[in-house]
């Protein structure tokens, strides 16, 4: 009997994404997520805030950053459900005739942009310094960690105020709205890099003694490749937790700077700027100008913190 030649059939990878998705659904983290109703609600609210900021230009009845769309005759109109309310101003208007809901949507976009970009900048700087300090050790480690220790003695808001003040004193009148946005991102990033650096340094000092690092060094891989490809992925759990919690802190820091007058200007307000503007009219009876931006900021921070707390517990094997 002759041996039949069986033709080679190419492997079918069409179900690879489905398999990956099924493994994600069966993971311990997703199981923990499904068990926590509070976390699910917080995640939905957080996602809703991001979607509102993303589609602000389609949802808002006016562009609060465009003076041509503002009319002073519409200033200080009460919310729509009150006796003095007028359509289409659902949450009323402020002293410049801006629709409060539209201002919140656009201000939410500014606050989230500053928060996310600040966290990314802080994470990139802190992770890079933590990798270098933990991997090489010695004098480099001592210098980086002493700088981190000195910065930890000052509150983050003071560091942000210092960086923001130095930038404004150097640039002066050349600091427009977009430049102010960039300064805030840098100021917030320089305020929060220490947590990333210390966490990554501790993880790297443990991981660099593993066999896989020794094997990578033995075959001649350069140090940057070992740090980024092999060591860094094993430290991502704590980094994700820090990033989630720091996102809320970064948004609060930006709101504080704007409330103190050192953040975004009135022509391009964030949630903190809207609260500062509304605070001037609180005792005059126009409570809605400050109340609704404050509620939006509080809801955003609370939802992000709840997701961060769940993520910290889910990624900690001692708490499972």
Automatic annotation (TrEMBL):
One of its GO terms (cellular component) is plasma membrane. GO terms for biological process: transmembrane transport. The chain crosses the membrane at residues 38-61, 110-136, 148-167, 179-200, 212-232, 238-260, 281-307. PROSITE patterns: ABC_TM1. Its main location: membrane. Keywords: Cell membrane, Membrane, Transmembrane, Transmembrane helix, Transport. It is found in: Cell membrane. PANTHER family: ABC TRANSPORTER PERMEASE PROTEIN, OLIGOPEPTIDE TRANSPORT SYSTEM PERMEASE PROTEIN APPC. Belongs to the binding-protein-dependent transport system permease family. This is ABC transporter permease.
């Amino acid at each position: 009997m002759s041996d039949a030649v069986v033709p080679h059939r190419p492997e079918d990878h069409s179900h690879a994404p489905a398999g990956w998705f099924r493994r994600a659904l069966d993971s311990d983290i997703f199981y923990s997520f499904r068990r926590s109703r509070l976390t699910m609600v917080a995640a939905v609210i957080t996602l809703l805030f991001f979607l509102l900021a993303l589609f602000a230009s389609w949802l808002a009845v006016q562009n609060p950053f465009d003076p041509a769309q503002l009319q002073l005759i519409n200033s200080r109109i009460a919310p729509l459900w009150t006796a003095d309310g007028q359509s289409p101003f659902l949450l009323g208007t402020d002293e410049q005739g801006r629709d409060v809901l539209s201002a919140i949507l656009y201000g939410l976009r500014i606050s989230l942009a500053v928060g996310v970009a600040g966290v990314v900048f802080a994470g990139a700087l802190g992770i890079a310094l933590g990798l270098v300090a933990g991997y090489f050790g010695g004098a480099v480690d001592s210098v980086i960690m002493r700088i981190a220790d000195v910065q930890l003695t000052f509150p983050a808001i003071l560091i942000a105020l210092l960086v923001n003040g130095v930038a404004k004193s150097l640039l002066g009148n050349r600091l427009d709205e977009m430049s102010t946005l960039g300064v805030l991102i840098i100021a917030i990033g320089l305020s929060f890099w220490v947590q990333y650096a210390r966490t990554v340094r501790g993880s790297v000092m443990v991981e660099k003694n593993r066999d896989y690092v020794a094997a990578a060094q033995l075959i001649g891989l350069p140090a940057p490749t070992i740090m980024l490809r092999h060591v860094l992925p094993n430290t991502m759990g704590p980094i994700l937790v820090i990033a989630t919690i720091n996102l809320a802190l970064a948004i609060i820091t930006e709101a504080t700077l704007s409330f103190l007058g050192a953040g975004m200007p009135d022509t391009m307000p964030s949630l903190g700027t809207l609260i500062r503007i509304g605070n001037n009219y609180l005792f005059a009876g126009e409570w809605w100008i400050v109340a609704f931006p404050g509620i939006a900021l509080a809801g955003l921070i609370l939802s992000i913190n709840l997701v961060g707390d769940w993520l910290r517990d889910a990624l900690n094997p001692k708490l499972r």
